[in-house]
């Protein structure tokens, strides 16, 4: 591991930085969004705060993480046809893509929920957003572990 | 995965916890600027606790596991310039983070005082404390130091 890190070409550094920064923003947005939704106890301000955090922080973080990930994978030659990808990268790509889909679904469901808050409804939909975001947070902890520890 | 791989993974997970806490506090800093009631301010306390736990676990985990890895892995030494830079930046980030917490605690303390006095309505004084510009500057500084640590860890200047 240390040797791989030591010999990493300089040209990989910037895409890796974008990938890690995006992932950190994504995880931070999920933590803030989940916390706001979980402790809202029906308070509309906190339900909105949780939803908008997911939309304005987690989503841009996911885009940066995914774009940076594709860039660094391409730089490392993993995206070439016929090149077998290691398990840790498969885990990363799978969790990133499925996670992106779940994030999108949670944002759509939450968006409807936030809209319905005006009529005094929608908190049930935001609970669904909370559950999905919490699952995502757990999944991305696994993804970080896989990316950093690189199991065979 | 070897033991060293596990330690590295936990070091990186700690870094994620640290940054996640910082992002969470940015969200709260933006949100609290509109809150002028004791009830609304106190409502943030459980979220603050999540942020404190995340930053605390992250900061301690990164420094302890980072130093341990420095001694354990080949090719790294504690006197490497980029590692010394990371240690200095970590200390600066911790100091700025602690002072940020102290700034925002003033608002939370005031909110509890107002609530205890039975004054539940909007308070200009509470709003001013929640909008502390010192707190914003200190949190921006802490965030900048942590961003520099991330850059330092990836680009490893002078390595």
Description:
The complex is a heterodimer of chains A (152) and B (159). Chain A is mostly helical. Chain A is 79% helix and 0% strand. The longest helix of chain A is centred in the middle third of the chain and has 32 residues. With 159 residues, chain B is mainly α. In chain B, 81% of the residues lie in helices and 0% in strands. In chain B, helix 3 packs antiparallel against helix 4 and helix 4 runs antiparallel to helix 6. The mean pLDDT of chain B is 95. Chains A and B meet through helix 1, helix 2, helix 3 and helix 5 of A and helix 1, helix 3 and helix 6 of B.
Q: Helices, strands, pairings?
A:
The complex is a heterodimer of chains A (152) and B (159).
Chain A: H1 2-6, H2 13-38, H3 44-75, H4 87-116, H5 123-149
Helix pairs in contact in A: 2-3, 2-5, 3-4, 3-5, 4-5
Chain B: H1 3-32, H2 38-42, H3 45-72, H4 81-116, H5 124-130, H6 133-155
Helix pairs in contact in B: 1-3, 1-6, 3-4, 4-5, 4-6
Average pLDDT figure of chain A = 90
Q: What is the residue-mean pLDDT of chain B, rounded to a whole number?
A: 95
Shape of chain A: elongated
Largest sheet of chain B: none
Distance between the termini of chain B: 26 Å
Instruction: Please report which band the strand proportion of chain B falls in: under 5%, 5-15%, 15-25%, 25-35%, 35-45% or over 45%.
Output: under 5%
Main sheet properties of chain A: none
* Count of runs of 4 or more consecutive helical residues of chain A: 5
What structural class do you assign from the helix and strand content of chain A?
A: mainly alpha
- Enumerate the spans of chain B where pLDDT stays under 50 for 5 or more consecutive residues: none
Give the low-pLDDT segments of chain A.
1-5
């Amino acid at each position: 591991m240390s040797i791989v890190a030591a010999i990493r070409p300089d040209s990989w550094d910037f895409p890796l930085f974008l990938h890690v920064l995006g992932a950190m923003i994504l995880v931070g947005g999920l933590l803030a969004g989940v916390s706001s939704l979980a402790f809202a106890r029906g308070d509309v301000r906190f339900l909105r705060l949780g939803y908008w955090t997911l939309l304005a922080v987690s989503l841009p973080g996911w885009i940066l993480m995914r774009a940076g990930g594709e860039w660094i994978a391409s730089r490392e030659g993993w995206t070439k046809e016929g090149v077998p990808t290691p398990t840790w990268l498969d885990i990363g790509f799978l969790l990133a893509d499925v996670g992106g889909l779940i994030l999108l679904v949670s944002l759509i469901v939450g968006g409807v929920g936030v809209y319905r808050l005006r009529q005094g409804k929608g908190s049930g939909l935001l609970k669904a957003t909370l559950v999905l975001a919490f699952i995502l947070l757990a999944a991305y902890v696994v993804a970080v572990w896989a990316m950093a520890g690189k199991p065979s | 995965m070897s033991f060293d791989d596990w330690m590295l993974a936990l070091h990186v997970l700690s870094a994620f916890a640290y940054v996640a806490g910082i992002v969470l506090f940015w969200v709260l800093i933006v949100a609290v600027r509109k809150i002028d009631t004791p009830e609304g301010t106190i409502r943030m306390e459980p979220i603050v606790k999540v942020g404190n736990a995340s930053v605390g676990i992250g900061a301690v985990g990164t420094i302890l596991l980072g130093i341990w890895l420095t001694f354990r892995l080949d090719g790294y030494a504690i006197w490497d310039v980029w590692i010394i830079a990371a240690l200095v930046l970590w200390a600066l980030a911790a100091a700025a983070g602690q002072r940020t917490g102290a700034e925002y605690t003033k608002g939370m303390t005031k909110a509890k005082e107002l609530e205890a006095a039975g004054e539940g309505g909007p308070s200009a004084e509470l709003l001013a404390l929640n909008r502390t510009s010192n707190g914003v500057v200190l949190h921006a500084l802490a965030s900048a130091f942590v961003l520099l640590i991330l850059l330092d860890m990836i680009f490893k200047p002078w390595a």
